[in-house]
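Justification of computing resources. Each target in the renewal requires a structure prediction run like the one illustrated here; the chain below, 145 residues long, is used simply to show the kind of job we budget for.
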Amino acid sequence: MSPGMIKILLLLVLFIEVNIFEDRFAEGCLFSYKRNIHIFNDLPPKSAPLKLHCWSKKDDLGYHTVDVEKEFEWTFCGNFSPSTLYNCQLWWGSKDRAFKVFEEKTEGMKSDRSIYWVAKDDGIYYVDDTPPFPKYAEKKYDWNN
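Resulting structure tokens:
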């Protein structure tokens, strides 16, 4: 391979690396992996609204109302130590449920990915990075009355 071709290949590799680095920097997860958490309202139409409150040790995401077929979502970067933990409490009419939506010790931070929690009339379902709903949803929790 000629020296000119080697220079072109090195410049191409450098260009690709800079673009990847720039994307990671823009996302704020330069040295760790990114997680997207979604709480999706799949409750019956015209039912009581889904209300929720989500938090971690360092971050209170506040109280939110999510309309049917809409979602509340947030993104965060993992820690160097496996200590990230997010909890949510969901309310639907007289029913509620509090649960861990993400625990780094059990979920791990191997790669960027999304986690979906789906509120349905019979409980809360988990979908790991594979929408559409409810094809791959796994029921995790029943509503408390």
